[in-house]
Amino acid sequence: MAAKKTTVSNAKTFDAEAFKRSVVYNVKTLYRKTLEEATSQQKYQAVAYAVKDLVIDDWMKTQEAIAKDDPKIVYYMSMEFLMGRALGNIMINMKSYEGAAKALEELGVDIDMIEDEEPDAALGNGGLGRLAACFLDSLATLGYGAYGCGIRYKYGMFKQKIENGYQVEVPDNWLKDGNPFELRRPEYAKEVKFGGYTTIRTDENGRQHFYQEGYQSVLAVPYDLPIVGYGNSIVNTLRIWDAQPMECFQLDSFDKGDYQKAVEQENLARNIVEVLYPNDNHYAGKELRLKQQYFFISASVQSALEKYMKNHDDIRKFYEKATFQLNDTHPTVAVAELMRILMDEYGLEWDEAWEVTTKTCAYTNHTIMAEALEKWPIELFSRLLPRIYQIIEEINRRFLLEIEKYYPGNQEKIKKMAIIYDGQVKMANLAIAAGYSVNGVARLHTEILKKQELRDFYEMMPNKFNNKTNGITQRRFLLHGNPLLAAWVTDKVGDQWITDLPAIDKLALYADDPKAQHEFLNIKYQNKLRLAEYIREHNGIEVDPRSIFDVQVKRLHEYKRQLLNILHVIYLYNKIKDNPAIDIYPRTFIFGAKAAAGYRNAKLTIKLINAVADVVNNDPDVNGRIKVVFIENYRVSNAELIFAAADVSEQISTASKEASGTGNMKFMLNGALTLGTMDGANVEIVEEVGEENAFIFGLSSDEVISYENYGGYNPQDIFNNDADIRRVLMQLINGTFAPGDTELFRDLYNSLLNAISTSTADRYFILKDFRSYAEAQQAVEDAYRDENRWAKSAILNVAKVGKFSSDRTIQEYVDDIWKLDKIVLK
Fold it and tell me: What is the SS3 assignment for 235?
């Protein structure tokens, strides 16, 4: 289904005949079949193994260069890596895509069919994981040594099904046919211990030694995946850990009738790696999440130290050759685990270990939402990780002495900054206390952290804080995802943009050119046809590719305000019902989002979107002027189709709540215009492209923060005084979109109006921003009617996207934080 991709000339000569032989050979040896007899999945596997064979030599040479030259490398530690499909991306970065496509065509195999057989790797969920994937791509492309460190989830978060409008979570069994790109590395397996208790023994010199006893343990077995740099033969590694029992099936217990004990070890291991973000609305879920975090961190830290000691003899200088980047609070336990290993296994004194740790660990904060900063109950944490908890207690004791030194007798500071307080272990506080760098991910986000959420830390240690505005890889989201536009851009300005995105700025010269505008709009139309076919095939809905494709695709959370979007659709629907002859430019509202399994209001919002779609899409009065589509199981592979086809990029989070956003950048790269609040990276996007080429609405972040701190907003006032908004809200509870069940959407209605107090009703200011949003939507329609104006703005969005490459972000991390050395291949 994908269009033909165009790449620049090959980095190395692609041997088409050898590649064809390899594919045919793989089909024969893997499946005892000829190519003609093989299934589509078998053909994909054969092609993937052939591509992997091309990668392996470069992968080995990269590792040899790292071993020989000993550059400083980064361990990027993250609970998720939303990689997407690997095959096409690897071929593009090897500059062999075109040659492989032609070779496969000669074998009678369609490369698009092959790519569609690959499941998305279920290793991540949202922007956090996709950012990690983009960063790995950029690190390899820029020539820096890196390991991604994560978990090999068996089923990911979940595969989303929509049944009767509701989200249903089913296992995402992405590994059922195996993963041809991974390498199992049992020789590097590590033991990870949980529970038990700590004993102390004193040696003849009076030094105390700590031992964990009575524990359960699992074996962490690494699987390595290649991360291929663009055109430079550098191949880094994503190392994901699988959990296996230390002992296999216990036959003696089984024979005695103790069937539970016989499989106890296997169950412990299996549970750790089954799903990403297990529901933590209950104690068992919280325990499992903490186990997952410690599991992959302990294995990764053990592995990093072992790798270092192969070529060095002084563990005290570890930080000179390695750095740990903690991607949000999930990996923060690395601080205490590094301390544990340095003291308990390498014999360092506390101060020595602390110096290494505080020069090794750096922390990225991804959220302004206080409730998203992880906190663990002391009882759970100390029981599951007894030695780690001891170490954190001591870190906290020493940190409180520092706070006391800066702010004598200030209990309020201690309350806000202590690592252990009020029965909880606060992981963000641990990361800040121990990290040598603390960064936000957009300029506005970082300023809010410094002035609001982390103000006390910033005042005490300002030198740690810095901003690194997020970025995306243009190789995945333009070169691979939108080949028609990529070829057009290259034709106009050359191919330098592939590794130097600011070079795309030269495209601005064509923004007023009628011929270029026509070409651009035709490419957009072809991409809209492609997405329309996907929607027809997967949703059974016919959409008009000449309508405005208005798109909001992202993780579903109340602050991201998908609810505002669908309430506006209801408002437009009411306008049509009131005046069926009204002139409204046809609009297709496209949603895609997963809601966390335990997040009731988010899941109810999905149901509402689908309920509104059922009514609007089937009402003859609407006559196709509005269509609503919810794309099931939003993921990287269908995101590429969506970004390429979008006209409008909905970035409508409550100002001050979105740390950065990267979907906004992907839409911009593909020529969609931003409709959004001045939140996250939207602020910087508007600076680059100009406010005249975006549609900005709503409260500012300062206004939101002021309302939150000082009050003054009551949504009931809007409900009482605005008849249109009142009508929309009443339709949530009068059966318009839930015939026979007027209570179905009551919780959404209550979240806007009837919370416990007015300070928590409509906490994300949906009603407050509604009129401003509706005006911005009208401005979108007016602008779209002027084809030349729209084309100019869209081209300028592409031209001004240069700042938002993850290559720029990574180079800033390297220059300002990590201080890495480049890999030099001989």
Answer: strand
* pLDDT cut 70: percent of the chain above it: 96
- Answer yes or no: 666 catalytic: yes
Q: For 477, phi and psi rounded to 5 degrees?
A: -100, 0
The secondary structure of residue 161, as a DSSP letter, is E
What is the β-pairing status of strands 375-377 and 424-426? antiparallel
Q: What angle do CA 714, 717, 721 make, to 5 degrees?
A: 160
Q: DSSP state, 475?
A: I
pLDDT surpassing 80 at residue 328: yes
Q: What is the mean pLDDT of residues 221-227?
A: 98
Give SS3 for 748.
helix
Quick one: three-class SS letters along 7-30?
A: CCCCCCCCCHHHHHHHHHHHHHHH
Catalytic residue among 323, 446, 654, 662: 662
**Is 662 annotated in the active site?**
yes
Could you tell me which residues come within 8 angstroms of residue 10 by beta carbon, excluding any fewer than 6 positions away?
95, 96, 99
Q: Is 554 a catalytic residue?
A: yes
User: What are the tokens at 626?
Assistant: 């509005």
Q: How many CB atoms lie within 10 A of CB 692?
A: 12
pTM greater than the 0.85 cutoff: yes
- The encoded tokens of residue 548 equal 């405005």
Instruction: Annotate 472-490 with DSSP letters as a single string.
Output: B-HIIIIIIT-HHHHHHHH
Separation between Cα atoms, residue 772 and residue 160, nearest integer Å: 33
For the cut 70, the answer to whether the pLDDT of residue 8 exceeds it is: no
- What does each C-alpha distance from 9 to 13, 14, 39, 581 come to in angstroms? 9, 10, 32, 55
Question: Does 366 qualify as catalytic in the annotation?
Answer: yes
pLDDT for 639-666, tens place per residue? 999 999 999 999 999 999 999 999 999 9
Q: Is 5 a catalytic residue?
A: no
Taken in order 123, 129, 134, 139, the sign of the CA dihedral is negative
For residue 765, the Cα-to-chain-centroid distance in whole angstroms is 25
Partners of 192 in the beta sheet?
218
Q: Which of 289, 321, 330, 366 is catalytic?
A: 366
% of the chain exceeding 90 in pLDDT: 91
Residue written as tokens 């297990």? 278
pLDDT of res. 206: 87
Per-residue confidence (pLDDT) for residue 5, from 0 to 100: 44
Q: Catalytic: 560?
A: yes
Token readout for 515 is 């011929």
Angle of helix 562-578 relative to helix 600-616, nearest 10 degrees, comes to: 20
Calculate mean pLDDT across residues 167-187: 97
Dihedral angle over CA of 591, 596, 597, 603, nearest 10: -40
Structure tokens belonging to residue 426: 């606060």
pLDDT for residue 251 is more than 70:
no
CA gap 239, 247 in Å, rounded: 23
What is the pLDDT confidence band of residue 759, given thresholds at 50, 70 and 90?
A: low
**End-to-end CA separation in angstroms for the chain:** 40
What are residue 371's phi and psi, to 5 degrees? -70, -15
Pick the more confident residue, 802 or 283. Answer: 802
**d(C-alpha 667, C-alpha 513), whole Å:** 22
Q: Smallest Cα–Cα separation from 821: which of 11, 64, 65?
A: 65
Name the catalytic one among 154, 321, 560, 635.
Answer: 560
Residue of 52, 528, 666, 792 marked catalytic: 666
**Active-site option among 43, 130, 387, 554:** 554
